[in-house]
């Protein structure tokens, strides 16, 4: 132990056990005219607090005072200890040369146990600077001495640091062993901040080993621990950004990084952390499709890292800067050279990101037509395909696919794409939350596109269909992991419903709702966070699609039209009569624009007096048909049609297209999903459930009439239409009709909802069902709206139901006139009573409506999904 009274010395470990109490005691000690020795400890405690949780300039002032008092007390060990703390602060302030000089003096002044503590802190600084080998050497020298002195706290810190360095070098197993040993030591101490740091570090280790749900759970737990201590969490922000990006949540990572930068600037915090946060923000912006923001953040990070003499970090920031410039369309020979230089430096550092840089160099070179240079860089990147975490192996397979394409080997391209997507399938299925599974597919978008192009060139329409299905609506191929019987999650859902219900009532009454909305958002974050912690249960990527099985199940009458998009143009794959034919249609961007015009027109037609808009909407429908079906429209035959659109066209009202208007028409997210719906057996008991939510303009007028028609149906209305009871009755029903206000949440699609008596029933609720209704009819606005995420995935009410046992859904993709919906629904159920499918009954129901614009628009707005 260094010099000073025992009670004063207890303040130093207290900084990371109870930071606020340590700060208060140190200030009180300075007010009591302490001895130089005690004053040195007090100033050091305040300096540590300010360094890690406050203003770095104040930290440096206090630490210099601490050193002055240590020198005045003539204590070499005390001065060495302060010099080490000062060295860390100087490095975090970007004054690397001064910081390392302080460590040199500290190592020279300290002896034995104190020198070991100084070496540990210098090892930490080497890690901050990216000098991993020097860090491991110092910590190797420190640990035996700390163990011999039975210094549990500092031994645990040293083991945690060594594990963190191992992670930076990709040695996950070594890191986990050190984390486990450190955690056993922390359990014997009261160091609450250090314990929180250990949980955070285990989260990083889980992420490096490919377990994203565990990483998110541990990082959330660490944040809760830090919150109880009242300490900032900038390192945790950086680590969570990394995990969020890997989970496909780049916009959230960017928001978190930018918010943390603002907070750090506000307290005058560590410039080293600011540089790391800027790097995280740059990566997130690039992945979010914002290359210009990425360039700005990365360029500033490069300058800060260079000024801090942090070459390892600077090199990583340069990689992101080059990636962003390439994404902004700045391919050049200089960029190839820069990427190659970065790849060489990263490889010399032993950094896991080296293959990513080589892939980038090869990709840019290919774009310039430099095939020899591209092959050299891609061959290096392709080595990573055999080992390492999933995303690193995918980098390798992407490089291998590009090599094969450059060599003209279609078979090589398809094999590499298959192997790479298999890796991502395995990774996705470790994720329990359907949102994470959907968003993770973005990481396979390039491989899917490469395979699609190769299939188009040489494989014929059947092969293109296989590859289109290979990466379409994969989330629907297996049921999501059921949310656990988690009391906190269930409590959060109940509280969320209550707050949402109160907020809705306040809006209706014209009262202000900001406080209620803030609480609702907080509860949404809490619920979402806990669902993202779920691990997947099913190995592999679900059933493989079989074209022969599809054509056999279609028969000769049904035509299935799958729309694939390659290089921005719609490819129509027409399946029927035992074969697959391909037709080329228009540009996807043009079709999206036209679909928005149609949506605007349907919104106008939902109100009386807009009849003049009908010809405009019908003309837009004709243009949509040209863009989406092209010449295939003339080959649809006379039977039922199944449309399988890409995710970005989910808002198209398909019944408006002239060639589909009089047909039995259904929509499916994928051909595989349609097949599973076709082969889903209805439940044996044939239960019918009718639900009427509050606040409808017509009062859900169709429900009483349907209750008379289905004499044995369970009718839930008024106070009985509460979420728990509704879910209980829906589970395993043969037919459910829900008349309730629908709200689509583009910002958070799994909180899209139907309004019940006690608040909203959301997608998260439906995912708790053992089996969703075999057929479900959602009779109100916006219930068919979906969010397109990932490579080609959809999130919303309809897609939540399909993997859970629902074979058919009728829902609406536009605002509709409530009064006009009632006759449509009654006619629809009349058809169902006659034994028709949902698609057949909806076709006949449209035909039975009055011929005015309002009723026609209402019919077009509804679609049948699935195959029941």
Automatic annotation (TrEMBL):
<dbReference type="InterPro" id="IPR019734">
    <property type="entry name" value="TPR_rpt"/>
</dbReference>
<dbReference type="InterPro" id="IPR024983">
    <property type="entry name" value="CHAT_dom"/>
</dbReference>
<dbReference type="Pfam" id="PF12770">
    <property type="entry name" value="CHAT"/>
</dbReference>
<protein>
    <submittedName>
        <fullName>CHAT domain-containing protein</fullName>
    </submittedName>
</protein>
<dbReference type="InterPro" id="IPR011990">
    <property type="entry name" value="TPR-like_helical_dom_sf"/>
</dbReference>
<feature type="domain" description="CHAT">
    <location>
        <begin position="619"/>
        <end position="861"/>
    </location>
</feature>
